[in-house]
Specification:
Layout (H helix, E strand, L loop, with lengths): L4 E2 L20 E2 L14 E12 L2 E10 L4 E8 L6 E2 L6 E2 L3 H4 L4 E9 L2 E9 L3 E8 L5 E3 L8 E6 L8 E7 L10 E6 L6 E7 L9 E4 L4 E3 L2 E12 L2 E11 L7 E4 L10 H4 L7 E9 L4 E8 L3 E8 H10 L3
Parallel strand pairs: 7-11
Antiparallel strand pairs: 1-17, 2-23, 3-4, 4-5, 5-6, 8-9, 9-10, 10-11, 12-13, 13-14, 14-15, 16-18, 17-18, 18-19, 19-20, 21-22, 22-23
Bound molecules: beta-D-mannopyranose (BMA).
Beta-D-mannopyranose (BMA) binds next to strand 8.
Length: 326
């Protein structure tokens, strides 16, 4: 069914058609992994990274772990979304308050265009993980803002517009370790500094998403509600397995889940998803969208090691969520 999708027109979106005979709702790029772990000199891995359309091409903020295994944020640029030029020097944020600007680590960035600039949220080391925030106009200068929340919190995901006049964010309160629990919450802010009116969105559910859930890419506004992708985790005798699901949230009250997939839509099955620094992880963090055609390109981290692409049609995904909902 054709649905209303409120989003950008991106006729040159990086795209590969669904392979003959593929019955999946999401299919992978034949070029995966599109960014190998060792693209940067001295680098250990590049994964869980966010990209946006920028000046006729693409720009992004990348999670690059070096060989000391410190996680840092680096900017990158690409003409086609596939071949990336990543700056080997980490992003240096300009900040007002050195207590906040003091860098410990930064990982799992999301980038969200709101009104006049690109906002960046990430997991920021500040006496434990919390939601760091910053912005850029040009991917040249970066400005750091106050952390959105107290530790411990991860997976801060901004909505691309104000809702009833207020900025909105999903986040996932956690602990300072590997967190074997976790629900997604919704928070609002008038100024991007003070966040409140916290609402519960979703808890873990059965099967693949029974240990914890966390937000993924920036939500997409559709006629059926906010379309989100999220990760869901199960604890097995060999540790966590990270898979991805999708949900539709109410447009006016996004803490209300309308539909949510009972089955996963992407799971670690390819060698590059099953073997790496952390085996069995797919972790979607960004999408590109061509609203008129409903083509959606998903950037995801694989096995905490490299960066991959997958594709789907938003119309098909919405129908799938509705007919396979919990
Ligand atoms: C989470 C984060 C992610 C990572 C995942 C799997 O807690 O650290 O960056 O992909 O674990 O290790």
């Amino acid at each position: 069914m054709k649905h209303t999708i409120n989003g950008s027109t991106l006729p040159n979106i990086i795209w590969e058609e669904k392979p003959e005979g593929c019955n999946e709702i999401i299919w992978r790029s034949k070029s995966n992994p599109i960014i190998p772990r060792n693209l940067l000199p001295g680098g250990n891995s590049i994964f869980n990274s966010a990209v946006v359309p920028f000046e006729g091409g693409y720009a992004g903020v990348f999670r690059c772990d070096d060989k000391t295994l410190t996680a840092r944020l680096h900017k990158g640029f690409s003409k086609d979304g596939l071949h990336w030029n990543i700056d080997p020097t980490p992003i240096k944020f300009t900040y007002d308050n050195e207590l906040i600007g003091k860098f410990e680590y930064g990982y799992d960035p999301r980038v969200c265009w709101i009104e006049d600039r690109y906002y960046i949220t990430w997991c920021n080391g500040y006496y434990g993980p919390t939601i760091g925030m910053g912005y850029t106009y040009d991917f040249n200068e970066f400005f750091q803002m106050e952390n959105a929340f107290l530790p411990y919190n991860r997976n801060g995901v901004l909505f691309p517009r104000r809702i009833h006049g207020r900025y909105a964010m999903l986040s996932r309160p956690s602990d300072d370790r590997h967190t074997d629990f976790g629900d997604i919450f919704y928070s609002e802010s008038q100024d991007m500094i003070y966040w409140g009116r916290h609402r519960h969105v979703m808890s873990p559910a059965g099967g693949w998403q029974c240990t914890k859930v966390g937000g993924g890419p920036v939500p997409i506004e559709t006629g059926e509600g906010w379309l989100i992708l999220y990760h869901g985790v199960i604890t097995t005798c060999n540790g966590f397995i990270y898979r991805a699901g999708a949900a539709l949230l109410d447009i006016d009250q996004p803490w209300k889940v309308k539909y949510r997939t009972a089955p996963y839509i992407l799971s670690p099955q390819m060698l590059y998803e099953c073997v790496g620094d952390v085996p069995n992880v797919v972790f979607p963090v960004a999408t590109l969208l061509d609203a008129p055609t409903g083509r959606m390109t998903i950037y995801y981290g694989a096995a905490d090691t490299c960066t991959c692409l997958a594709y789907c049609y938003v119309d098909e995904l919405i129908d799938f969520i509705k007919s396979n909902s919990l």
